[in-house]
Amino acid sequence: MQAGPSSEGTAKGLADGGKAAIAQVNKIESQIHASAAKLGDVGGPAMYQAGVDAAAGLAKGIDSQLGNVDAAITKMASSIVATIKKDLKISSPSLVGASLGAEFPAGVAMGIDRGAPMAASAAGRLGSSVAGGYRLLRPTPMRAAAREAVEVAAEVAGTRTTTSR
Predict the structure, then answer these.
(1) Residues ≥6 apart with Cβ < 8 Å to 156
(2) CA-CA distance, 128 to 130, in Å (whole number)?
(3) Least trusted range by pLDDT, from 3-7, 22-26, 106-110, 159-163
(4) Mean pLDDT value of segment 37-42
(5) Which of 102, 107, 137, 150 is the S-S candidate for 131 at Cβ 3.0 to 4.6 Å?
(6) What would the DSSP string read from start to end of 120-145?
(7) E strand spans, the chain
(8) pTM
(9) Are residues 129 and 92 in contact, defined by beta-carbon separation less than 8 angstroms?
């Protein structure tokens, strides 16, 4: 009970009623506590189930709208692509892509140039190996010409071994 001028009547009634009035107030307070506990016992599971049902409903609602979500994401992606094409001045053919594309073959050519000595060296070693194999065979004009061609290739590649012409 709150103290103050508005509770004067309640206090006077309790004082006038004596011990019996105070016992009755205490009994009512106990009944209120018991009723609140029963409400918690009954209401708690019901509220829990309401939460479960609400979550299930929310999940079901989201699931039912996945098609709309997918459509919105697709629309957003298309918008992003259109904006990028516009900002980068991409048309058919892409003007930005054309300048970037010109750099790719230049890079490939640079790689080929860097790897050419290794390829020539390998070709020379192959030529020397083949030329060495021809020495074991009985000489014929065709084999001699082939051996000469292989040795020249090996010499050009800088991997000529000591073989006779």
Answers:
(1) 120, 124
(2) 5
(3) 159-163
(4) 84
(5) 150
(6) HHHHHHHHHHHHHHHHTSPP-HHHHH
(7) none
(8) 0.30
(9) no
